[in-house]
């Protein structure tokens, strides 16, 4: 294909991605170096019958004018990155130099908002991804045994948790695990504890969110693995049987190699989708015990008084770095394959 | 086939058991919520027993029947949920159409060019696909406020189209790859230009791929929360942020049932979609995997 033809076909798509994905990344990087203006303070002498007092107050008009003049705020360098709400360099080094053992360090670092969100995001990503794959594979094995007439209905029902809007799916489950809801009431009955609430403790909240994530993502793994099972190489399986391979050897040397590329694909997509975990935290109102990187950004952007663009941008840049680190092994692998094909 | 590769009774019983539990887990929350949305709050969130949500004694007392449309009336009429539903229709239809238009052109180019830059564009698309949407939103807000385009539907639509592009490109690229090159090349030998070959020879056989990709573009726009919640103003809100705002307002008796009814109203169209397009959704989910 000629360059000119290629350009003629690709430009609408490339322009859209350039303007609304690449440029915003630049805009985020710039914003992260700035911070909101301080409020303009004026000191006035207030003289009354009991003498004069100096009074400091906020000059609202001047502050607003400054905001309109320089909407980005004032230059702050990397200050936002190192402050307490982000990497918290000072706080972390203070904790590291003065602590009472490893447990103390972990507990105190986990109190810093960024590290709290980061640890939940990573735990969620690396628990939900394998759990969804295992459950998805188990469901695929089960569906594979069903008769043809049942498969359609079963696949339809299985797709529902994946297709539902994440925020609405988590709301539906949240209403059910409420102390007044059916699951919450049943759990209280089973454990014979009328005060049991899944919302009360951090551990239970984390478990709830991870269970929700698995419920939401397992159907995706199921569908891909199920499609893989449909295309098993029949001939290879039969010749392996003729060569005397037992059941385990057939699974180990024929079925598993056949499914490995699919598992890589599922794992990659799940990692990308789970790392941006956000809606369930809103849906389950879990922000008191569990926050994620995406939630931190949302929280900065929807601030009650002022939107903290600088802070949100710094978290965004750190999140993007996280995505890049997460993708590096895959990018390197793809690059090697590409080089091999090119030669 | 499956009998041959690993049949044994315990395994068979075990996997049927897992499947049975899974089906209950997958279907029960939806059945429960749809049923409960026709009850009053005192039944759906009953302090005494969850049986009340099934039989509905409080609904009987308060409304005189065992089912009530109060939740739906409150959401759709009183809180004007129909405006949000209409906005959702506009957003999803526009996003799907524009995404497919840009995506088919781009995906075709990527599948037919053998040069190095196609690889780099696809890799960039993969990295963009992995970016959490909210990180991009934090880049839009300030410039959009400055340019005075914040809050309008077209802004959200074009942003969703762009966010959709990486995924759409990958999927359509793999669908185009499965169509033999001979088809358009022979059309060009017969005197078509590149664009004519694309439109007359390739597009007629691409419809299944386009429909599948369109479904996923639709789902992305329909299910989005981070973009629509932050880029649209109150009057232009779509359904998902609207439901979230139901929850934020002061809780009056029964207003939680507005949210339940609205959630059911927003979820049922998805069920109907799956019912009709199940085969396309399954093939779409596996399209990326088969290509490897």
What is the compact description of this entry?
Chain A is mainly α.
Weakly predicted, low-confidence segments of chain A: none
Query: β content of chain A, as a range?
Result: 5-15%
Helix/strand class of chain B: mainly alpha
Order the strands across the largest sheet of chain A as they lie in space.
Answer: 1-4
Biggest interface found: A-B, 112 and 105 residues
Radius of gyration of chain B: 24 Å
**CATH structural class of the largest domain in chain B:** Mainly Alpha
Helix content estimate of chain B: over 70%
Describe the structure.
- The complex is a heterodimer of chains A (343) and B (292).
- In chain A, 72% of the residues lie in helices and 6% in strands.
- With 343 residues, chain A is mainly α.
- A two-stranded antiparallel ribbon of chain A has the order 1-4. A two-stranded antiparallel ribbon of chain A has the order 2-3.
- In chain A, a hairpin with a 2-residue loop joins strand 2 and strand 3 (51-58).
- Chain A is globular, with a radius of gyration of 27 Å.
- Chain B is mainly alpha-helical.
- Chain B folds into 2 domains: 2-74, no CATH class; 78-291, Orthogonal Bundle (MetI-like fold).
- Chain B has 15 helices and no strands.
- Chain B is globular, with a radius of gyration of 24 Å.
- Classes of the chains: A mainly alpha (343), B mainly alpha (292).
- Chains A and B meet through helix 1, helix 6, helix 7, helix 8 and helix 9 of A and helix 1, helix 2, helix 7, helix 8 and helix 9 of B.
List keywords for this structure.
heterodimer; A: 343 residues; mainly alpha; MetI-like fold; two-stranded antiparallel sheet; 4 strands; 72% helix; B: 292 residues; 2 domains; 15 helices; 81% helix; globular; disordered N terminus
List the helices and strands and how they pair.
The complex is a heterodimer of chains A (343) and B (292).
Chain A: H1 3-31, E1 34-35, E2 41-48, E3 51-58, H2 60-69, E4 74-75, H3 79-82, H4 89-97, H5 101-109, H6 113-145, H7 148-163, H8 166-177, H9 182-190, H10 202-230, H11 234-242, H12 247-275, H13 279-283, H14 293-301, H15 309-342
Helix pairs in contact in A: 1-15, 6-10, 6-12, 7-10, 10-12, 12-15, 14-15
Chain B: H1 2-6, H2 9-36, H3 41-44, H4 51-55, H5 57-63, H6 70-78, H7 81-112, H8 116-130, H9 133-147, H10 153-177, H11 181-189, H12 194-223, H13 226-231, H14 239-248, H15 255-291
Helix pairs in contact in B: 6-15, 7-10, 7-12, 8-10, 10-12, 10-15, 11-12, 12-15, 14-15
């Amino acid at each position: 294909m000629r360059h000119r033809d290629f350009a003629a076909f690709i430009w609408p798509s490339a322009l859209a991605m350039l303007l609304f994905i690449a440029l915003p990344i630049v805009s985020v990087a710039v914003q992260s170096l700035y911070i909101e203006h301080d409020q303009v303070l004026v000191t006035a002498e207030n003289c009354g019958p009991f003498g004069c007092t100096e009074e400091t107050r906020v000059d609202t008009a001047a502050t607003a004018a400054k905001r309109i003049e320089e909407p980005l705020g004032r230059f702050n360098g990397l200050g936002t990155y190192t402050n307490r709400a982000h990497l918290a360099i000072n706080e972390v080094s203070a904790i590291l130099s003065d602590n009472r053992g490893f447990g103390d360090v972990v507990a105190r670092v986990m109190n810093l908002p960024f590290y709290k969100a980061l640890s939940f995001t990573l735990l969620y990503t690396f628990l939900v991804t394998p759990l969804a794959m295992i459950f998805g594979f188990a469901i695929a094995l089960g569906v594979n045994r069903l008769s043809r007439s049942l498969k359609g209905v079963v696949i339809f029902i299985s797709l529902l948790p994946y297709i539902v809007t994440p925020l609405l799916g988590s709301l539906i489950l949240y209403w059910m695990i409420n102390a007044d809801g059916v699951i919450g009431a049943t759990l209280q009955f089973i454990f014979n504890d009328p005060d049991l609430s899944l919302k009360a403790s951090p551990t239970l909240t984390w478990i709830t969110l991870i269970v929700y994530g698995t419920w939401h993502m397992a159907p995706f793994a199921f569908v891909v693995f199920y499609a893989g099972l449909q295309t098993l190489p029949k001939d290879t399986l039969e010749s392996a049987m003729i060569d005397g391979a037992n059941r385990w050897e057939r699974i180990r040397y024929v079925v598993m190699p056949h499914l490995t590329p699919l598992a890589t694909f599922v794992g990659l997509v799940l990692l990308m989708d789970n790392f941006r975990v956000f809606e369930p935290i809103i849906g389950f109102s879990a922000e008191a015990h569990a926050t994620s990187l995406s939630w931190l950004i949302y929280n900065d952007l929807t601030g009650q008084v002022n939107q903290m663009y600088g802070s949100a941008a710094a978290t965004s840049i750190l999140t993007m770095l996280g995505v890049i680190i997460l993708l590096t092994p895959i990018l390197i692998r793809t690059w090697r394959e590409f080089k091999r094909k090119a030669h | 086939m499956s009998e041959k590769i690993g049949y044994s009774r315990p395994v068979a019983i075990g996997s049927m058991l897992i499947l049975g539990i899974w089906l209950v887990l997958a279907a029960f929350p939806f059945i429960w919520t749809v049923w409960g949305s026709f009850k009053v709050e005192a039944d759906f969130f009953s302090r005494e027993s969850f049986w009340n949500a099934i039989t509905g004694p409080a609904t009987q007392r308060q409304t005189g029947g065992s089912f009530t449309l109060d939740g739906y009336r409150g959401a759709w009429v009183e809180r004007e949920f129909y405006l949000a539903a209409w906005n959702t229709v506009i957003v999803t239809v526009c996003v799907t159409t524009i995404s497919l238009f840009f995506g088919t052109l781009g995906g075709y180019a990527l599948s037919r060019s053998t040069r190095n830059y196609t690889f780099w564009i696809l890799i960039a698309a993969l990295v963009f696909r992995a970016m959490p949407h909210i990180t991009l939103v934090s880049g839009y807000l300030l410039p959009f406020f400055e340019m005075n385009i914040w809050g309008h539907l077209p802004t959200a639509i074009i942003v969703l189209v762009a966010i959709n592009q990486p995924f759409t490109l990958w999927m359509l690229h793999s669908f185009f790859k499965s169509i033999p090159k001979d088809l358009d090349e022979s059309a060009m030998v017969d005197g078509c230009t590149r664009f004519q070959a694309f439109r007359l020879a390739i597009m007629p056989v691409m419809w299944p791929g386009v429909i599948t990709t369109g479904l996923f573009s639709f789902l992305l726009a329909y299910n989005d929360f981070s973009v629509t919640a932050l880029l649209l103003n109150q009057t232009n809100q779509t359904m998902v942020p609207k439901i979230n705002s139901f929850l934020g307002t002061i809780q009056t008796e029964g207003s939680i049932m507005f949210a339940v009814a609205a959630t059911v109203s927003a979820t049922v169209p998805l069920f109907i979609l799956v019912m009709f397009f199940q085969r396309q959704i399954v093939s779409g989910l596996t399209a990326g995997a088969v290509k490897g």
